[in-house]
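Notebook p. 47: complex prediction with DQA.
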Amino acid sequence: MANDVTFPKVLVVNGPNLNMLGTREPEVYGSTMLADIDAELCALAEDLALSVETFQSNHEGALVERIQQAMGTVAGVIINPAAYTHTSVAIRDALLLLSCPIIEVHLSNIFKREPFRHHSYVSDVATAVMTGLGKEGYLLALRALARMIYGVS
Ligand code: DQA
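Predicted complex, structure tokens below:
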């Protein structure tokens, strides 16, 4: 008989230019590629009894639509809205549709960078924010979500 156990799903959403990780400003964002981060998240998810679905887009509307589709279907969201962090009311409004925990992640410490990066339209609708820990921020976010989803304090 097929194994039909399904683990709670975490949606990982990455915004514009994060598909270029590895070659994009490595002094700021490191040398790891997005596919490597996705693979590490999937491996960790297995240990945490979660499943992970990853989505990256350079288009604001596509990001909004993927977040809308998450309504009622995912147990948690990790989102790095990238440049849209600082501009997008539409992504913020889409996140407000969700009732699950949301963790905002940034590879760099946005508060140590240019002033226009200091404001996030997402932070006050997110459950928590990880900024400046590189790819580790995504992994820690997944661990934190596992504890929230399984009710471990
Ligand atoms: C980023 C920070 C943003 O300011 C920037 O526009 C990005 C990446 C980060 O992960 O550090 O594209 O979200």
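Notes: The mean pLDDT is 96. The longest strand covers residues 9-14.
Next step: compare against the earlier run before touching the bench.
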